[in-house]
Specification:
Order of helices and strands of chain A: EEEEEEEEEEEE
Distance between the termini of chain B: 37 Å
Number of helices of chain A: 0
Low-confidence stretches of chain A: none
Number of helices of chain B: 0
Radius of gyration of chain A: 14 Å
Helix content of chain B: under 10%
Distance between the termini of chain A: 41 Å
Order of helices and strands of chain B: EEEEEEEEEEE
Strand content of chain A: over 45%
Helix content of chain A: under 10%
Strand content of chain B: over 45%
Structural class of chain B: mainly beta
Oligomer: heterodimer
Structural class of chain A: mainly beta
Largest interface: A-B, 30 and 30 residues
Shape of chain B: globular
Low-confidence stretches of chain B: none
Number of strands of chain B: 11
Mean pLDDT of chain B: 95
Chain lengths: ~120, ~110
């Protein structure tokens, strides 16, 4: 069975600090996708990034960057120069094809609080 | 273009009642998945529908059922509500039923069972 672990329950930082959210996953599949979603208080899951299991190239997009390492089954997410608007719950998720369906397995989330 | 729309946004039900939640996917998307998110947890997979057929089901009791209509919208039904069914119910829209298509989520329906 697939599993996603986000060991950090809650992180508090002061604005402009850098922060890294950790994600470790378990799967027996050779083809899979990893996702990061942001969930503000409104509840909607906002898509941030998707990576497939064959693409270990790390990426920087504005203040966001991602570090995907298959050797350690980790897919970490870094926010540079954090802002108050970054305050939200962040979820790491792993997808799989199961028979005729596909589904996401989510971690328990990391609550990020950015203060002035 | 409209995103994934869910209705209602909030509702309160009494134990034992039945509830129906609705989801309209992004135009052109033929797959709808349902997830339950209990407070403090990550979303849990309930169902995936594609081309009006159930393609996958998570570990939920038979009290949970769903269907997809010819216009690809979907309804999630929960019978004999329990207090533990209180959660945010999220709908995800996708082009197809394979993982490569990715998923776009709606804002959810927050259900409170009293």
């Amino acid at each position: 069975a697939q599993k996603v672990t986000q060991a950090q329950t809650e992180i508090s930082v002061v604005e402009k600090e850098d922060v890294t959210l950790d994600c470790v996953y378990e799967t027996r599949d050779t083809t899979y996708y990893l996702f990061w979603y942001k969930q503000p208080p409104s509840g909607e899951l906002v898509f941030l990034i998707r990576r497939n299991s064959f693409d270990e190239q790390n990426e920087i997009s504005g203040r966001y960057s991602w570090n995907f390492q298959k050797s350690t089954s980790s897919f970490n997410f870094t926010i540079t120069a954090s802002q108050v608007v970054d305050s939200a719950v962040y979820f790491c998720a792993l997808s799989e094809n199961t028979g005729t369906a596909s589904k996401l397995t989510f971690g328990t989330g990391t609550r990020l609080q950015v203060t002035l | 273009d409209a995103g994934v729309t869910q209705s209602p946004t909030h509702l309160i039900k009494t134990r034992g009642q039945q509830v129906t939640l609705r989801c309209s996917p992004i135009s052109g998307h033929k797959s709808v998945s349902w997830y339950q998110q209990v407070l403090g947890q990550g979303p849990q997979f309930i169902f995936q529908y594609y081309e009006k057929e159930e393609r996958g089901r998570g570990n939920f009791p038979d009290r949970f059922s769903a269907r997809q209509f010819p216009n690809y919208s979907s309804e999630l039904n929960v019978n004999a509500l329990l207090l533990g069914d209180s959660a945010l119910y999220l709908c995800a829209s996708s082009l197809g039923n394979r993982q490569l298509y990715g998923y776009t989520f709606g804002s959810g329906t927050r259900l409170t069972v009293v």
